[in-house]
Amino acid sequence: xxxxxxxxxxxxxxxxxxxxxxxxxxxxxxxxxxxxxxxxxxxxxxxxxxxxxxxxxxxxxxxxxxxxxxxxxxxxxxxxxxxxxxxxxxxxxxxxxxxxxxxxxxxxxxxxxxxxxxxxxxxxxxxxxxxxxxxxxxxxxxxxxxxxxxxxxxxxxxxxxxxxxxxxxxxxxxxxxxxxxxxxxxxxxxxxxxxxxxxxxxxxxxxxxxxxxxxxxxxxxxxxxxxxxxxxxxxxxxxxxxxxxxxxxxxxxxxxxxxxxxxxxxxxxxxxxxxxxxxxxxxxxxxxxxxxxxxxxxxxxxxxxxxxxxxxxxxxxxxxxxxxxxxxxxxxxxxxxxxxxxxxxxxxxxxxxxxxxxxxxxxxxxxxxxxxxxxxxxxxxxxxxxxxxxxxxxxxxxxxxxxxxxxxxxxxxxxx
Amino acid sequence: xxxxxxxxxxxxxxxxxxxxxxxxxxxxxxxxxxxxxxxxxxxxxxxxxxxxxxxxxxxxxxxxxxxxxxxxxxxxxxxxxxxxxxxxxxxxxxxxxxxxxxxxxxxxxxxxxxxxxxxxxxxxxxxxxxxxxxxxxxxxxxxxxxxxxxxxxxxxxxxxxxxxxxxxxxxxxxxxxxxxxxxxxxxxxxxxxxxxxxxxxxxxxxxxxxxxxxx
Lengths: 416, 215
Prior knowledge:
Chain A is an alpha+beta fold and about 425 residues long. Helix content of chain A is about 65%, strand content about 10%. The longest helix of chain A has about 55 residues. In chain B, helix 4 links the parallel strand 4 and strand 5.
């Protein structure tokens, strides 16, 4: 059952605008507009015309570039003024380059154009906001003098007063609207270049995609290598054992038996090898028991002693777990193969928002991105919106540090 | 017979040495890379070299290049190249020119001990050997479709066996038919395909392969 709003409540709502601080700040922004923009206009015109005039002799060019810099600073002040309404308008990137490049930079001249033109909308807005307040105030003051004037009757006076009150209540919102309109001019003129930002993002994504594809290809080659060097060779040797055993069955049964024992040993070794390769691809234990267990399993199977410090408060999402596992596995392989280290430390910390992985070894350092599978991890990690750092001065020690956020921050490539 | 074995896998080297010992082939050196192979051949002057295609450092074609080098510098040396995969290009490089005492086999063949040892003997005696996998790929890809279609199934098999480097006797044993039958098949094949053939087993290999690879 809704209550019929009483007069007091209606009054509250109506006058809420007058009590809103934002509205008053908007009024302040608009009232100071003309002064600020005129000063900006003068500053820009004086410096630019002086320096442009000197362009006939060489010195004008660097002077103009300096003047443009000054103008950009002035527009920066105007951008800051918009913070009265909420947030300041962010600037846009200006290209750095040779003097001539900066002289010809369209963006800088765009700032100059704004500096010179901004006072016109500011003046209009000023007039508008004055009207928006002056009219209702005037109406409200009518009763004070209308009694002296015959032309205006009492009903008209009261009508005007009421209208004035109403308009006064609307004035704050109108002011806010006008202020926002004026600010949008600033944003459009000298605010961030959305198009350039998106173009940059597309470039970043394409590059990352190329890196990921290369990493995937390299990984496939690596798998082929592991299978070829390990399992296939073993199976051929196994076949020889069996072939020889077969040929000796009648003539030399003891010899045949020895060969069959050998064959069984080779079979066992092949199975083990396949298990290791499978674990490098996707460890089953990761799915069964989680990251901690999976890490313990690789860390125990190494030629260099590895200390595992795992701080897993919350189990991360599955794809992050896999990536973290893969980082450790790859980094440890490098430690075993290239570092001549005596000790390695694997540090894995999982919080509610991200996983940090670092693999340290006290070996000979000098690790680079090529030929070590690190390029692959790096591309994969960055493709997930994470970060990758390699510190490996010659002589060591080496640290590989990776951060994997759960939800990639917006504006980054969150695509694997 | 004295042989040198070159393969980067210790397991496989061991296996080959044992295998060859069964056939009373003396392995005078077993090495793991191309440079060691050339040095060993130089030092021991064996009758036969068994070489893996892929060896350190790049694991691509070190074996083939060493084999070609040895062909040029020591033509009387018989060379059998073993490969994990059918690398047709390497096979054709090896077989270009003189095919006497040259062979290209998949490592899989090694597992069939008696057949492998047969092939080793054949190559060491100056014959040739082309893996049947390689031959069947060449047959499949050959643009001589029309001519090949004129052959019967058995004739096509005989053609394949010729390309592998088998002698008439070898073909007879392989298909368990008489040598007379083999000779008949061979002459049918060549009249249907319309080209001249010699009796010499290893020269036949090159002739057949050349024929099949042309259009």
